[in-house]
Write a structure and sequence with these properties.
Number of domains: 2
Order of helices and strands: EHHHHEEHE
Structural class: mainly alpha
Shape: elongated
Number of strands: 4
Largest sheet: 2 strands, parallel
Strand order of the largest sheet: 1-2
Helix content: 55-70%
Radius of gyration: 19 Å
Strand content: 5-15%
Number of helices: 5
Oligomer: single chain
Distance between the termini: 21 Å
Amino acid sequence: MISLKTHNILDYVGGALLLFTPAIFGFAEIDAARNTFIVAGLGLIAYSLLTQYDYALWRVIPLGLHMSLDVLNGVVVMLAPWVFGYRDLLTTGQEVVHYALALGVYALVAFTQPKAEGQVGRTDREIFPGSTPSDYPSRDRRVG
């Protein structure tokens, strides 16, 4: 399993990788491909900065939405050559890069452990938002 903190770090690394992928793999001259990767990379960095986890600036996006956006980002990268009509301009290796990156995103989402190690259920703080610990039925009790 991948810890949420590791996932968080890999999001920023992945965003940078997406930005540089067209140049690294030699398809930066294909406007649609380059723009797809720029939007995907900047999008990943942007919603990571807004996700409710470590290393975010504004924690407004729930983790579930973040993971859904990760999957959507993978789908866009995987289908972009067909949807944006540049598949015939890619070499086989460049096309495989699209699939490999998308599959990497799916694996990252699938193997990320969304809760801290050993945490089984939600904490009282999660169940009773806005309350103080003295308001909880049982301090730090785990439920469901």
